[in-house]
Amino acid sequence: MVLKNLNDLRHIVEGGPRKKLVLAAAQDLHSLGAVVKAWKENIIEPILIGDKEEIQNICASNNYDITGVRIIHEPDTDMSVEMAVRLVNNKQADILMKGMVGTSTLLKCVLNKEWGLRTGNLLSHFALFEVETYHKVIAVTDVAMNIAPNLKEKIAIVNNSVSCLNKLGYTMPKVAVLGAVEMVNENMEATLHAALLSKMNQRDQIKKCIIDGPLAFDNAISLESAQHKGIRSEVAGDTDLLLMPDIE
After folding, report:
1. How many domains does the chain have?
2. 225/163 same-domain check
3. Collapsing DSSP states into helix, strand and coil, what is residue 71?
4. What is the pLDDT of residues 49-108, one digit of tens each?
5. Cβ neighbours of residue 53 closer than 8 Å, sequence gap 6 or more
6. Based on C-alpha coordinates, what's the Rg of the chain?
7. In what order do the strands lie in the sheet with 174-178?
8. Residue 11 in domain
9. Cα 119 from chain centroid?
């Protein structure tokens, strides 16, 4: 299975068990809108933590009917995040979502050694995008958490993202490891990492995907560009996942 657009995600979750989603610092218009929509479509059961009056005012102003939704009043942002993380840690919620709070504040709680959500594995960012000029949904990693990952960390990032795609129905997602150029250059670490990841994949050290790199951004997403440069690749022009060299 390959996602052609983000609406395909709805078909994956339709008919399945509703997951409990906790929204930290829930007094945020766009976050509330997304949560209410998912709730109305019977995908999630929401728990809202934040300033109750602000939450209710936002919902009233935008015709969001939240009758029956559990709201936990906690106006302090840091405490609302801690409460949300603890709910997931205690199996009282399945999904953690951030509202009007910075990522650094959220991660500080997620990484708490006593009641956080550590698993022993590297945490990494994974996002799906629908782009009009591309023929399917494309995933990107990691542009939010790991600043300058080394080779070992990139292996973990790839495995995290491939696991997500496998769970979405991709049997062998195609991974493009990006560099500034598509040729290995001993003075450009990103291209060396890309070549090593590609070879490790060929030898089944990284499984359940097809990896190629280094690839520049243009030939990763454009078959015409790849052919113009004489690149022969299963991944070029048909990428499912873009692995960025660093957070920038």
Report:
1. 2
2. yes
3. strand
4. 999 999 999 999 999 999 999 999 999 999 999 999 999 999 999 999 999 999 889 999
5. none
6. 20
7. 127-129, 138-141, 241-243, 174-178, 210-215
8. no
9. 17
